[in-house]
Design goal:
The structure holds 2 protein chains of 2 kinds. By secondary structure, chain A is mostly helical. In chain A, helix 4 packs antiparallel against helix 10. The longest helix of chain A is centred in the N-terminal third of the chain and has 37 residues. In chain B, 72% of the residues lie in helices and 0% in strands. Chain B is built from 14 helices and no strands. Classes of the chains: A mainly alpha, B mainly alpha. At the A-B interface, helix 2, helix 4, helix 5, helix 6 and helix 7 of A face helix 1, helix 4, helix 5, helix 6 and helix 7 of B. Chain A: This is Multiple sugar transport system permease protein.
């Protein structure tokens, strides 16, 4: 440091620039290191603990074993909960894909009166009526409909919540698919539903894939909705069941939780990076977990 | 191929209104109806019902569950004279300001800015881990932080040699602010990365030529280009942070309500204590705040489009 400063006084401009460059490099490296530490250290537990013979709450290099996954496989509640997450995620995905493509296709091709207002309202609604803000009436509604403790009910609520965003994004995709194919299909006498299924859906496949993945990611990790609407542990998804894994001593069962967390996280992380690599990140109104 | 059907023959086809498949208004409405029905039932109706429920003394159990009474604006008066409500509102403001406006936005920008001037491989690694925090399901991330912050075995105490500090009990609000920053920074980082990519390098080059320092470059060249993104980003993450329920899994609002942000307050009041009417009144206040933020956002979006 002193050497650099000493030379500053002799030959000014070059050394000053060098000093600035040096400080910039230092700052950049220190900041990058701190950012990495902040984001990496908490995740290390998820990497090491599942393979540790004696997992603790602290991050440490594991005494390698696969035993925690055996503990997981021997726990029927844990396995069933992953299945439940899959049911909720795929169920909602199918609902929003079917209803969303029908709706966005008709909005894209036909000028229904008030279409722009409708789209605007949908987007507004989905961003202000969130799961948290509407949990009380949603809960009561499901009580009245007799859909408490029903996975079907959870699928309906979750689908209703993400459908506006789905329609909004899919309409963009439908708008950008070429229309000439539909025209010729129509000249050959194909009915609208058939055109949608055989012509439009294949063309809009990248959009549909993005939406499908997005819907799965949204539902897979959702905690609040199943937490308030489901009662039986046997129907609850992984996000909720994870918080019931305690040992007889009342301590969190770390062997089970660590292996379970890893298995629960891998599918969404994999899907996310797959879609990103394939289609790139896109920014749309409400996309976020 | 079958011959063209009689009704939809080419003679009626060519009206250039974009309706290339001959859907027609009636059928378009039919296509639209199922989606709108689901949205009305599970999104619009609950919101409207909140209006009514907030005016009753509806409870989860007991006599008020069977015959709820209309109590007018009592719930709102109760809320506005309740210290717990104002405590919760204050905590929520601190939480949103600390973790969204300062935490995610500033950190996200700083990362995006720094990553424009490091090697590609470094950039990829940093972005991967920041994104990972965002993608991992919230039940898992809360457990990771529960482990980090644990009193006797937590990694944080071991790293900082802070003995047996019980972070979640002694600093509950600070803990959930740091947690939420950790989870959500990815969005701001991505948004600002793409914003910074749109700053023309030639302008930065000429600024550097005339000897502008880093700060001057930022203020005069970069900021004017990303001003819109700063606003968009702030509004969106404010809205999301305001509505997040995840901190419940870390502190459950405690200890002594010290991290009792509005979503958790509503949950405990309405679904734990059973005061559905009172909870609805506060939900409505929340929806109105959401409405204000979202309206400003959508207006900005529209302005930029036109």
């Amino acid at each position: 440091m002193t050497a650099v400063q000493g030379s500053t006084s002799t030959t000014r401009p070059e050394s000053r620039q060098m000093l600035r460059h040096f400080l910039g490099l230092m700052g950049k490296s220190v900041f990058t290191a701190l950012v990495l530490a902040f984001f990496v250290i908490p995740v290390l537990w998820l990497v090491f603990a599942p393979f540790d013979a004696h997992p603790g709450l602290n991050v440490k290099l594991p005494e390698f074993t696969f035993n925690n996954f055996k503990v997981l496989l021997d726990n029927p509640t844990a396995i069933a909960s992953l299945g439940n997450s899959l049911i909720l995620a795929l169920g909602s995905m199918v609902v929003v894909l079917v209803l969303g493509s029908l709706a966005s296709y008709s909005l894209s091709r036909v000028k229904i009166p008030g279409r722009d207002l409708l789209l605007y309202t949908l987007l507004l609604l989905s961003s202000i009526i969130t799961g948290t803000a509407a949990m009380v009436p949603t809960f009561l509604l499901m009580v009245k409909l007799g859909l408490i403790d029903s996975q079907f009910g959870v699928i309906l609520v979750l689908s209703g919540g993400i459908l506006p965003t789905v329609i909004f994004i899919l309409k963009d995709f439908m708008d950008s698919t070429p229309k000439s194919y539909e025209e010729s299909a129509r000249l050959y006498g194909a009915k609208p539903l058939r055109i949608l299924w055989d012509v439009v859906i294949p063309l809009a496949r990248p959009g549909l894939a993005t939406i499908a993945v997005w819907a799965v990611v949204q539902v897979w990790g959702n905690f609040l909705v199943p937490y308030i609407l489901l009662r039986s542990p046997s129907k609850s998804p992984a996000a909720v069941v994870m918080y019931t894994f305690y040992t007889e001593g009342g301590q969190p069962n770390l062997a089970l939780i660590s292996a379970f967390s890893l298995l629960f996280s891998i599918p969404v992380v994999a899907m996310y990076f797959f879609v990103n690599r394939r289609y790139g990140f896109r920014f749309h109104g409400g996309i976020k977990s | 191929m079958p011959a063209p059907a009689a009704g939809t023959g080419p003679s009626r086809a060519v009206v250039d209104d974009g309706d290339v498949a001959g859907l027609g208004k009636a059928r378009a409405m039919a296509f639209l109806a199922p989606a709108l029905l689901l949205i009305s039932l599970f999104l619009v109706f609950p919101a409207l019902w909140t209006l009514y429920l907030g005016l009753t003394n509806y409870r989860l159990s007991g006599s008020a569950a069977k015959n709820p009474q209309f109590v007018g604006v009592d719930n709102y008066i109760n809320a506005l004279s309740d210290d717990r409500f104002f405590n919760s509102l204050g905590l929520t403001l601190l939480f949103v300001f600390g973790s969204a406006v300062i935490g995610q936005s500033a950190l996200g920008f700083a990362i995006a800015w720094t990553m424009t001037r490091v090697r590609k491989s470094v950039r990829a690694v940093v972005e991967f881990f920041v994104l990972l925090a965002w993608i991992i399901p919230s039940s898992v991330t809360t457990f990771l932080w529960y482990a980090m912050l644990d009193r006797s075995n937590g990694t944080l105490n071991a790293m900082l040699s802070t003995g047996n500090t019980a972070w979640l009990l002694d600093y509950p609000l600070q803990s959930i602010i740091v947690f939420n920053t950790w989870v959500g920074t990815a969005f701001s980082m991505l948004l600002f990365s793409s914003a910074l990519a749109s700053v023309p390098p030639s302008q930065l080059e000429s600024a550097r030529m005339v000897g502008a320092g880093a700060w001057a470059q930022f203020r005069d060249v970069v900021f004017p280009h990303i001003r819109g993104h700063v606003l968009t980003n702030t509004l969106l993450i404010t809205l999301w942070t305001f509505n997040t329920f995840t901190p419940y899994l870390l502190t459950a609002g405690g200890p002594d309500d010290r991290s009792n942000i509005l979503p958790i307050f509503i949950y405990r009041l309405a679904l734990n204590d059973g005061a559905l009417g009172q909870g609805s009144a506060i939900s409505l206040i929340m929806i109105i705040i959401n409405l204000v933020i979202a309206t400003v956002y959508l207006r900005l979006l529209k302005e930029r489009k036109s």
